[in-house]
Amino acid sequence: MDLQRISALFEQRREGHTLPQALYTEAESFDFDMAAIYGQSWLMAGMECELPKAGSYISMMVGKWPVVITRDKEGTIRAFHNSCRHRGSMVCALGHGTAPKLVCPYHRWTYDLDGSLFAAGRMEDDFDKSAHGLKPIAIECFAGAIFICLADKPLPIDDFRDTLTSYAAPLNFKGMKLAHESKLVEHANWKLVMENARECYHCATGHPELAKTFPVGMSKHFDAHEDARAEAFAAAMDKNGLPHTPVEGHWWQVARFALNEGCVSISENGQPLVKKPMVTANGGDIGSMRWAIDPHLFAHATSDYVFMFSCMPVSATETHVLSKWYVHKDAVEGVDYDVDSLTSLWTVTNAQDKQLAENNHKGVNSPGYTPGPYSADAEMLARRFTDWYCDVSRVYIVTHGK
């Protein structure tokens, strides 16, 4: 990887503008992004409720890297590189599962849920099993969510932990269950997918279904401006002990905001999609609690469900959008909720965004592409994402370009 050339591309970026073409389109830029961004950042892997008992595991990809997350016999959640210490095969197939031990399908090397090597057949007498456990990955669990970082020295996470824990506490995320998940393949660079996900400039025309309940006209950091309705919402949240003021760090944001008038959920008609709510405060009218972390995620929690959007790059021209829907653990499918109804709005929205991102990528490939300016009002979060990406990339280049 030519870090000097990559550095030169970042130097070409004009303040307040999108990126130079090569940072969106070239394979070398993708390799840089995997090392400098996804290899160094905190990523949300899911919710603790996805590991309901000892032996539960989640096997997933972080870009091109396989990861497995387990709950061991003591209830501790751990994360490991999903690569056998024998000859490197993936130990766990992708998806959710439950097993008393993790067994590599190639030569049956067997690992305990804490990552230690339990058995390795036909090895020499002096073979040291203790030196061949699965390699651990940094993990933090708080507010009912799971965060992992593949870096050797992860960035501090304390400020985000404190804020998300405070905002999420009334919703009791540990008391949820995973109702549905999906994967959408988008033929676009991951940064274009995320820039699209960080703004609603396009929402009024691009997402007419979402716009019925979601306040697509908000500016900057979910700023509804000072009006009587916004003030009434803030007062109601204060009365019910629900934090709502937008808070942000370098790589994260958390806020709670009101939905459109008469709407209590992000749904096609603004009404709850789940009869068993997660919280009943203010009659269930608590708006949406949104949190977002760079480089890959946003999530919304209303009183009746949580939606998680995660962007995972596969190549310079392909991105996988992973979506998850969570509901109260006691909600019964077919009685308290219907999966098709629960997932319909965000599925339609994701499909619309896929078309927009893929069209964007085709246009960026044009020899006529020139980086354009962001709207300070409508695209503040998109610009914030790109500024963050450039900041983190420059730091990586300085520390690894020796």
Which keywords apply here?
single chain; 402 residues; alpha+beta; Rieske Iron-sulfur Protein; 2 domains; seven-stranded antiparallel β-sheet; 9 helices; globular
Q: What's the architecture of the largest domain in CATH terms?
A: Alpha-Beta Complex
**Multimeric organization:** single chain
Flag low-confidence runs. Answer: none
Task: Output the CATH homologous superfamily of the largest domain.
Answer: Naphthalene 1,2-dioxygenase Alpha Subunit, Chain A, domain 1
Q: Structural class of the secondary structure composition?
A: alpha+beta
Number of domains: 2
How would you state the average pLDDT, rounded? 96
Say how many strands there are.
17
Biggest sheet, spatial arrangement of strands: 1-10-9-4-3-2-5
Q: Could you say which overall geometry the principal axes of the C-alpha atoms support?
A: globular
Fraction of residues in helix: 25-40%
CATH topology of the largest domain: Naphthalene 1,2-dioxygenase Alpha Subunit, Chain A, domain 1
The Rg value, from CA coordinates, equals: 22 Å
Quickly name the level 1 CATH class of the largest domain. Alpha Beta
- Characterize the biggest β-sheet: 7 strands, antiparallel
- Range of strand content: 15-25%
N-end to C-end Cα span:
13 Å
Tell me about this structure.
- Helix 5 packs across helix 8 (339-364).
- The protein folds into 2 domains: 42-154, Rieske Iron-sulfur Protein, CATH 2.102.10; 172-364, Naphthalene 1,2-dioxygenase Alpha Subunit, Chain A, domain 1, CATH 3.90.380.
- The protein has 402 residues and is of the alpha+beta class.
- The strands form 3 sheets. Strands 1-10-9-4-3-2-5 form a 7-stranded antiparallel sheet. A 7-stranded antiparallel sheet has the order 11-17-16-15-14-13-12, with helices on both faces.
- It has helices spanning 3-12, 21-25, 27-38, 158-168, 190-197, 203-206, 228-239, 339-364, 380-400, and strands at residues 42-47, 56-62, 65-71, 77-81, 95-98, 102-103, 110-111, 117-119, 136-142, 145-149, 176-186, 247-248, 252-257, 288-293, 297-301, 306-315, 318-328.
